[in-house]
Amino acid sequence: MANADISNLAVVGIDIGKEVFHLVGFDDGGKLVLRKKIKRLALEQTFAKFPKCIIGMEACLSAHFVSRSLRKMGFETRIISAKYTKPFNKGQKNDYNDAEAIAEAALRPNLKTVRQKSQEQLDLQALHRVRSRLVSRRTSTINQIRAFLIEQGITVRPGAGALRKSLFPILDNRSDEISPRMSNILVGLYEDWLWLDERIETTTKEIEDISVKDKDCQRLMTIPGIGPIISTSIVSAIGSGDAFDRGRDFGAWLGLVPRQYSTGGKPILGKISKTGNIHIRTFLVQAAHVLLMRPHNWHKFSFGTWLENASQHLHKNKLAVALANKLARIAWSVLYHEHEFDKDKTRLTAI
Hints:
Elements: E1 9-16, E2 20-27, E3 32-39, H1 43-47, E4 54-58, H2 63-72, E5 76-80, H3 82-85, H4 95-106, H5 119-151, H6 160-173, H7 180-213, H8 215-220, H9 228-238, H10 247-253, E6 258-260, E7 269-272, H11 278-292, H12 304-311, H13 316-337, H14 345-348
Parallel strand pairs: 1-4, 4-5
Antiparallel strand pairs: 1-2, 2-3, 6-7
């Protein structure tokens, strides 16, 4: 394979690893002409010898960096979701078979690809991931404090605020029941909690500062229930929204639509699919619950009539998901058309 002619190279599939990349390429006639393993640092040097062609890769760590590097060299790159390359895998799983499957998937004309993210989007996405991890750690720390107190026979009413107010009075008043070692452990966990609070506040402030300066975020925040956290998370994921043809595609990508298993012309719909970005989906459902708590404000929105009618026959949880889907579709329209929500109600009502 090393002596094969690559002058007619049409597509190359890259299986991206931490240090090593596996390449498989086909010519215009579908003949295998490239099968090579290279070091990550030799990427540009290797592709400089190839003719300009289609480069396929799975959406994974460093895929956007590799895509940007190859686009600068004149190649057409296609980042493909892993679930779309799996049907093209032949035989047992190995790096070369994976690269071959990626190359074949990259040639499919109707296959949906992942849009390449800018460095600004990746930075914003990293901020959200760090914040999400810190919030998760804080929740774990609070739960551990509660668990240790329960082991001492002490329960505290729900809520982080209640635990914060009660912890030190408990340690003072129940010192005869709580050992000095356990008391030190609980104080240490409380200090971790304070440190996490500070880190979360700093990260959130940075996200809010970005939302103030970004025009797309400002437009998104005209939508009811959407603030700095949701707006920046949406922009970091889809940019201007041009990766989707319509708002319903964005809602489906987020997993806010029923999972479909239809056959024989009979539609069978199940629970929501829960695909796509779990953080954005969670944020939108939470925003929907907040809006549902204030029915006196529904009439102020262009979708208020729809929401009032839907509330008559849907369970509150189903209604929240339906409203989250509505918000997602509105968000796509606001981004794609560069238009504030409800500024022109005739344009945004039927989304």
